[in-house]
Fold this protein.
Amino acid sequence: MDPAPRRTISSFLLRGSAQVGLFLILVVLWAVFANLAPGFLSKFNLNSLLRSVAVDIVVGFAQMVVLATGGMNLSVGAIGVCAVMFSGYLMQVLGLPIPVAIAGTLALGAFLGWLNGFAIVKTGVNSFVVTLASASLFSGGMLILTKAVPLNGLPPEFGAFGKSAVGPAFGSIPAIPSLAVVALAIGLGLYLLFKHSTLGRQILAVGANARAAEMSGIPVDRTIVFVHALSGALAAAAALMLTSRLAAAMPAVAGDDWLLPSFLAPVIGGTALSGGIVSVVGTILGALLVSTIRSGLLVLEIGNFWLPLFLGAFLLAAILIERGRAAYVAREQARRAL
Amino acid sequence: MALTVDKASKSFPGVRALKDASLELKPGEVHALMGENGAGKSTLIKIITGVHRPDGGRLLLDGTEISLNSPRDAIRLGISAVHQERNLIPRFSVAENILLENLPRRAGLVDYARANAEAKKYLEMIGLVVDTRTEVRHLSVAQMQMVEIAKALSHEAKVLLLDEPTASLTGEEAEALFALIKRLKAEGAAILFVSHKLEEVLAISDRVTVLRDGETTLIGEPIANMSRGRLIEAMIGRAERIAVVRPPKPATGAIKLEAKGVATAAGHRDISFTVRRGEILGLYGLVGAGRTELARALVGKDKVTGGSLSIDGKPAVIRSVEEALKRHRVGYLSEDRKYEGVVLLHPIRFNVAMTIWDRLAKVLGFQTAAGERKAAEPFARQLEIRTPSLEQAVGNLSGGNQQKVSLAKWLAAKVDLLVIDEPTVGIDIKTKAYIHELIGKLADDGLAILLISSELPEMVALADRILVMHEFRLVDGFDNDRSYEAMSRKVMGAIHRHADEAVAAE
């Protein structure tokens, strides 16, 4: 017997999921930045923000799917670098059609991820250790093969896609960049996977309690290999998006730079490091939060040296506010249960 | 020290765990705390040990009101608990574990000579003979428990809480523990003894407090005035149900599983038996006899290294639990509910549907929560799982209800053979009787059941035949004539005979 919903802030906070708090924080930040720096809401800034956040979101997804099983993938960046260079090789050196190059790159990512999963399952060694080693292995192999020479002669259509947008623009609000649409489409696919598929449920069962899952007839090893292959494919997808955005394949753009954001977005968004709980929407909001703070500080022309400090402070504050909201919800529910 | 809980109340989201519960613990007494699962025992213990703060009511120590903000506060005041979940550090030595918070130091470094000497003092107090330098992980469960008690003594505990201390002890080990409890009592300790086992409570405690649905139905009744029946009545609100005894029935169903000379990686040799549909085959043995290990080999979790298995008359190799379930329709209800039976984080419907996702899946493996709820509903109703909704996380249910969820999962899977391992460990009397009744009914409906239990009354009440396992071998087997005395004589005789032969062989 729920009491009739009252239109108060407290009831709004209560009914919302964990992601509502994150959304509110985002809205407040946008309002603050828009007020302090008019440049923040400029068409140019919003467009560049959305295009870069699109890549961050998919990088976050690549980590999220492995976190779901309670593991982690430290080689998302390394796989990303391999995929960047491989896509360039396929398009520029071999001159393959773009769709074939995309399929080939995704397949490479999935294969490298599969190698991770296979090694983890066969050796029984923790995913942290295995992917730490494979990260060096993958990026080292890529450096030897490519000699770290950037490939600048990609087909122009490929670069054009990274700058294109969908739908009409309204005043200062720009049309939605195609890259953001790609990120949202991938998000929709993952949402369906976790919310509405056997495989997604198996992943969450393994993440929450691998022993109980195995003793209930769930193929735990196969599930773990699958998430790593999926993680590799998602890292490759992010690499393709990045290559398209920069219209060039450069080895220095991914790698270690991806590691922190890959964890930040899902974890801020409510994905449990211990496994069993994921949030696709949360990962999107988490990536948005990180990018918003970074972009806002850039627009405010805060010195580059200050950026990490402010970024850290803002993130901590955002996480604390969300924790506070969650605690408030728990208290309220306890009170109402009486 | 006397500890008094005066009308304590505590609520959690969705449940009122305690309502005006009172308890009065005096020095020099063993005070039993009883109640079904979910009656509020754990909550009361957590209030006394400073884990939870009560919403209402008072806590008094020697008549002065105290307020506990953390387990540390409780320990500082001399209240120590020995929990079911052991709080020892496996790779630390006995001495390090006992003196963990105040290891003696010299020049900033741990003074091991003094630590060992001091720890030895506590071990002597409780009469445990082990080297204080041994790592705790090498000890037996009973020894670990003793070390925990030694640790409590090192905190100068005057109030000692023992939470289900005999749950994983053998009869002999339990006797040793009781002797220790009596000694501590004689020295003036106030001991709160939490147990499910009526006999233990009647044998060892002086007074008893009983919780039912969060309220105290008996407060500090002298045990001399109590009987089994009255205790049970206080716990469940009516007199004990007589254990269900299945009428003897000739096994006529088709043979579901046949083992011939099976050997396993775990160490079994020459295991042969058959289980028929509609039959409950009991597998009895002492703790460590190798029963659970055999079950794990049968469902593909461990390796079968010799002999042969056949299922439905055809030779079968079972390489994984998945294969056992999907190809051979064999399931395993684990004894380790929390770690192997259920996924605590996820809702009831998710847990029940876990074994049947393949069947629920639509195009491209499409699943919905509604589909799972629909599939889980009949079983939740059949098993009377007490919950406001199937969306409730299993971690929020009581132990008995968790076990029902674990069982529901296998009923939903419609297996032909279910290996049931210690189905009623740590489960309250009412749910226990209910689960017994259910197991009987399942067999009547044609399920083949291999029942593993170390409780002989449970075996005698349920099994059609009883196999006896000792040291990873089947040493004998009997038809169950439903007479507890006769069966226990036969079973114990078989075990002793085998033990004697083993000694003679050496």
Q: What stands out?
A: Confidence is low (pLDDT under 50) at residues 1-7 of chain A.
